[in-house]
């Protein structure tokens, strides 16, 4: 039989919060990491089409940009899933979503409803959350064991 203190609502609450603090970043990393892998893969497998689209929306050096962004999305998505370099790659991927708003979804910048319905929105929110709060304990970043830093992602 459990002791009375383990059945205390406050202890139960703290246990649930502790579980969510690790589960939510893991779920975000898996779901959005996979989406970035798929988006990057599709860009890399049709660079001509991707470069043509990038050129049509005014992105500088469209062929290079298509390869770079496709590679970043593919590699960054895989690393998000693993939880390796999470904050760095989440920040880089969030940056690509900001560029997507200023190029392909420019009109959404002036309408909150359109902003929230645009394709980059959920990716931007997820990557900003991961960049801000880190990968959680269920990540390779947590295994690094760096004890002499103040990054709080170790």
What are the key terms here?
154 residues; mainly alpha; 6 helices; elongated
Structure description:
This protein is mainly α and 154 residues long. 68% of the residues lie in helices and 0% in strands. The protein contains six helices and no strands. Helix 1 (9-44) packs antiparallel against helix 3, helix 2 crosses helix 3 and helix 4 packs antiparallel against helix 6 (120-133). The radius of gyration is 19 Å and the shape is elongated. The model has no long low-confidence stretch (mean pLDDT 91).
SSE arrangement:
Elements: H1 9-44, H2 47-56, H3 62-82, H4 86-103, H5 112-117, H6 120-133
What is the domain tally? 1
Number of strands: 0
Give the overall pLDDT as a whole number.
91
Portion in strands: under 5%
Overall geometry: elongated
The SSE string, one letter per element, is HHHHHH
> Cα-atom Rg, whole angstroms?
19 Å
Q: Segments where pLDDT lies below 50 for 5+ residues?
A: none
Total of DSSP H or I helical runs spanning 4+ residues: 6
Distance between the termini: 37 Å
Helix/strand structural class: mainly alpha
Helix content: 55-70%
Largest sheet: none
């Amino acid at each position: 039989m459990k002791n009375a203190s383990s059945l205390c609502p406050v202890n139960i609450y703290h246990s649930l919060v502790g579980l969510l603090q690790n589960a939510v970043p893991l779920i975000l990393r898996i779901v959005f990491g996979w989406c970035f892998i798929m988006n990057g893969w599709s860009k890399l497998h049709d660079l001509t089409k991707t470069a043509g689209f990038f050129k049509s929306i005014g992105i500088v050096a469209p062929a290079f940009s298509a390869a770079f962004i496709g590679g970043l999305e593919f590699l960054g998505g895989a690393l998000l899933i693993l939880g390796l370099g999470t904050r760095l790659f989440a920040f880089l991927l969030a940056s690509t979503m900001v560029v997507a708003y200023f190029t392909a979804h420019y009109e959404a910048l002036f309408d909150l409803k359109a902003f929230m319905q645009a394709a980059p929105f959920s990716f931007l929110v997820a990557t900003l959350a991961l960049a801000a709060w880190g990968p959680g304990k269920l990540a390779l970043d947590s295994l690094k064991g760096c004890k002499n830093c103040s990054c709080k992602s170790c």
